[in-house]
Amino acid sequence: MLRAFAYSSFAAPGLFDEKLRSIVSQSAAFNRIAGVTGAMLVDGTRIFQYIEGPSDGLEAVVRRIEQSRSHTLMRPLLDAPTAQRAVPYWAMTRLDTGQTVVSGLINAGWDEFGQRPVAHSPGMELLSSVLRPHFPVANASD
């Protein structure tokens, strides 16, 4: 069974683009080994991250996130089983978005995951609509 985890936090002072690129690259390498996929959305101040994978791999990734000094005031928004991956394409990717997108994701009703499948929660529907345009396009000749 797969698990999904999402959180919000604030970027630590001095977390500039170059450092953030390095974090995403290192995270992608670790996540590949752990079998975890995900996306990080950043508005310059706040971070929203969604990750998914097998429970043991996800736990290892969450521990790394909790120990990171690159962000503060981490607030879990979602921690639930999920039937399938919503973000199968990236071990980790970063999207720079505006404050409206990150605020919307943070406040999108993730607490409803216990009442309906994760894939149909308001938070997941919003996240999917933001990420879908960035998904790889299948080659028409395939």
Helix content: 25-40%
Number of helices: 4
Number of strands: 5
Please outline the major beta sheet: 5 strands, mixed
- Quaternary organisation of the protein chains: single chain
- Under CATH, the topology can be stated as Alpha-Beta Plaits
SSE series: EHEEHEEHH
Radius of gyration from the alpha-carbon trace, in angstroms: 14 Å
Enumerate the spans where pLDDT stays under 50 for 5 or more consecutive residues: none
Regarding CATH, which class? Alpha Beta
- How are the strands ordered across the major sheet? 4-1-3-2-5
What is the typical, i.e. mean, pLDDT? 88
Strand content: 25-35%
- Count of distinct structural domains: 1
> Structural class of the secondary structure composition?
alpha+beta
CATH architecture: 2-Layer Sandwich
Outline: globular
State the end-to-end distance. Answer: 30 Å
Could you please describe the fold and organization of this structure?
The chain is α+β, with helices and mostly antiparallel strands. It has one domain (2-134): Alpha-Beta Plaits (2-Layer Sandwich), CATH 3.30.70. The chain has four helices and five strands. It has helices at 17-34, 55-67, 99-106, 122-131; strands at 2-11, 37-42, 46-54, 71-82, 93-96. Strands 4-1-3-2-5 form a five-stranded mixed β-sheet, with helices on both faces. Helix 1 (17-34) runs antiparallel to helix 2 (55-67) and helix 3 (99-106) runs antiparallel to helix 4.
